[in-house]
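Two entries, shown back to back:
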Amino acid sequence: MIFDLKRPCANCPFRKGQGEKYQLSPKRLKEIERAEGFLCHKTVDYSKPGARGRKNSRQCAGFMSVMQHEWGGSPMMQLAQRMMGVDFKDLDPQHEAYDSWADVKKAHARPNERE
């Protein structure tokens, strides 16, 4: 199922300590933050231009964890909870993902943009 992933992968951009590695731009982070969902890069088939192999794709556990902490889930997660009874209580059991979008933004900021 699309919500099967429970832990952020080792190089998830939403895993603590990885934001500094990826340094996603503020614009990209805002796009992701406003998205209905965000697919895990390890589950997307990039060999199929346009289609991106969504059949086996999964939602990113790091993204879902941050969204769960911040807003009770992304729009897609909230819909899955209401319509399909999906339970996210086992999400990120070792608290490996950032705790908030503020933490995500701070971690991804370039060194000259950090407080």
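entry 2 starts here
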Amino acid sequence: MDIDYILERLTDGFRPFSVRTSDGREYAVPHPEFIAVGKHSVAVIDKRGYAVSLDPRHIVALKDLPAKRAA
């Protein structure tokens, strides 16, 4: 996937999304602080604080997450 598209999703009116990889795994990005984008890699931080490093060539889709309902 094009790194610039991922960066655009982070800066152009951010909406929560998930990153889907070529092996079918999905990683939630509920806030821009949960992802770091470098020139050759993307790191997604999970709820427990662990990072997963991904090769952008294996990112096949970014999917909007459902909006949370107000309580």
